[in-house]
Amino acid sequence: MPVPPPPPPSLPARLYLLAWDAGRGRPAGGAHLHHLVRAGALTELAQRGLLADEDGIVTPADADARTGDRALDGLLELVAESRPRTWKSWVSLRARVTLAEVREQLTADGWLRPRRRRILGLFPKAGFEPVRTDAVAVLRADVRDVLTGPVPTAEVPKDGAALVALVAAAELRTVVSGRERRRHKERIEALAERAGAAGPALRQVIGEVRALAIVAATSGGG
Length: 222
What we know:
Blueprint: H1 11-18, E1 20-21, E2 26-27, H2 33-47, E3 51-54, E4 57-60, H3 70-81, H4 87-92, H5 95-108, E5 112-119, E6 123-130, H6 133-148, H7 158-169, H8 178-183, H9 185-195, H10 201-218
Antiparallel strand pairs: 1-2, 3-4, 5-6
């Protein structure tokens, strides 16, 4: 039996994999997937204590710190080299750079492989696809278990709580439907509090992801 790939190296990488829509052969949430992935990177860095909140401004806790993950380290460098900005600004600013770095990391780790597909059956377009769709399905099932399972929110790991809070805010249909979001609204809010217990950063990030998802949906991009 083949050995499964290693766990995704980061929270934004897991968000990218969770967005994969096997029926359509591409990630869902195309209009704002980069925002969701960037939000995941901000969240992980905040949870690791590598980004701090100073009166609503994102601040590197250690300008020389590195994680070994190209997307997370790239964002740390970008924040350190830029003028002070809010969490809301960083969800969007150059977010496609983080998305590209996440894809590169997943490809290097054996989770993704390049592929070419055709738009309207005519126009070639480069893309990526999961190497192991069954492993992605297990990841998705684990996230849904956190959403619907009996484990008290206080016992859910903070990164798992953040995954649920972010996919719900982004209205990521590959993981949770609108009906399920409404049914589990209180649980989602409790998980968001669990994920962001260290400070207000995640609340601001989730709020911006939710706002961008609404804009994308109303403009026909979701």
